[in-house]
C-alpha cells in the first residue's frame, strides 16, 4: 500500500530568527474566498471606529504661558527644540519644546504689542518686531535680557521674515518694506516706499524658499503681490474682495503660497497665475489669522478667529481635521514643528498649546507589528473612503454649537445665491447671462 504525503523542506516553514515573519501558505484563488470583500469592508468600518476612538489631539500647554494674549510665534528651520513667542504686552518668551519648559523670559522686550518673530539661519538668535517701531536681535540664551542690536524706524512694524539662505531679513511697516543687514543698525539696505503706487500699509512679508530675490506681500488695501528685491519695481499684484491677514510659501513647492482671508476662507495661489486661486479651502466661520505649512508641503494648518484650528490638504477644499477646546479663545498664531508630528498654537487666552498633527497617532516608539497594523487600517479606510458608513464615521467631527449653527446658516445663504443665479439665467435671453465660477470671482482686479 502506497501513502502519498506532502513534504516541504524545513526552510519553507521555519523562521531563521524569532524576528522574522512567519510564512503562511494560502490559496489565493478568489473562487475559494467568496466573502473576502465583505470581511475587508467590516475591517474597514472597525478601523474607522478605532481611528476616532483614539483621536486625542491635545497634548498640553507650555509652562504657564504669557500674561497677555499671544500675538506672534516662531520656530527654527534647522532645529526641533527652540521656540519663541511674543504677547500683546511686549513680552517675549523662549521655550524648549523637548521638555515643554520655559528657558527664558524677557518682560520688557518691547513697549507695545509684538507683531512678528523670526529665527536666524543658524537657529541661535531671533528677531522681534513691534508696534513701537523697533526690531531687536536677541540670543536664545537663558539669562539674556538685553538686546544685541536695535533697528529703528519712524513708524510701526507689522511683519518680519528672515531670508532662507542669506544673512538678511525683511520688515513690513506702515511706511515701507525694508531689507536689512543684521550688521547695520542705522539704516536698511533697501527701502520700498511706493509699491504699486499705494500708500497703504503692508501687513505681511514672506521670502520665497527657492528664489532668493523674490518676496510676497499682503497689504491693507486687500492686495497680495510679488516683488523682486533687486529692482525698485514690483512684479505682480492681485486685489481680492477682502483683506488677507497672513501668507505662507509652500516649502516643498516654492511656486505655491496660501493666504488666510477675512472672508473665512484660505486661498492657494500659483505665483505664475494670480488671476484666480488654484484652490479655495473652506470651513471656518471666522477670519483666518495665521497659516503654517507642514515641512512636507502636503498639508497646512490654519488658525482662526472662530477659536478653532483646521488642517487642510494642499489639494483639498475641506479640512481633514478640526481642533478646538472649551477654554481656548481666538487663535492668533500657529506653527508646525520640523518633524511634522506636532502643531503649536498661540491664542488670546495667553496659552501656547501643543497638538498632534495626526490625532490618533500614538506618542513614542512603536513596534514593527504596531506600525504594520496602523498602515493596514489606514489603507482600508482609504480604499473604502467613499462608502457612506466609512464617511460618516471617519469624517464626522464634533464642533461647538455656535460654529455648527453658523455653518448651517452659511449653507442656507449659499443655496439662496445659487438659486437666484439659476433663476436669472432661466428668465434671461439665452446666452446673455452666464455663470461665473467662485474661483474667478475671488479676484477683483490685477495690477501690473
From TrEMBL:
| Listed Basic and acidic residues bias regions | 413-424
Q: Where is this region: Disordered?
A: 1-22, 413-442
Per UniProt, subcellular location reads as:
Nucleus, Nucleolus
Ranges of compositional bias, category Polar residues: 1-16
* UniProt keywords, alphabetically: Nucleus, Repeat, Ribonucleoprotein, WD repeat
Write the signal peptide boundaries: none
GO BP annotations of the record are:
maturation of SSU-rRNA from tricistronic rRNA transcript (SSU-rRNA, 5.8S rRNA, LSU-rRNA)
Top-rank taxon, per record: Eukaryota
Task: Give residue ranges for domain Sof1-like protein.
Answer: 357-442
Recorded hits in PANTHER family, A to Z, give: DDB1- AND CUL4-ASSOCIATED FACTOR 13 (PTHR22851:SF0), U3 SMALL NUCLEOLAR RNA U3 SNORNA ASSOCIATED PROTEIN (PTHR22851)
Family, according to the entry, reads as follows: Belongs to the WD repeat DCAF13/WDSOF1 family.
What is the name of this protein? Sof1-like protein domain-containing protein
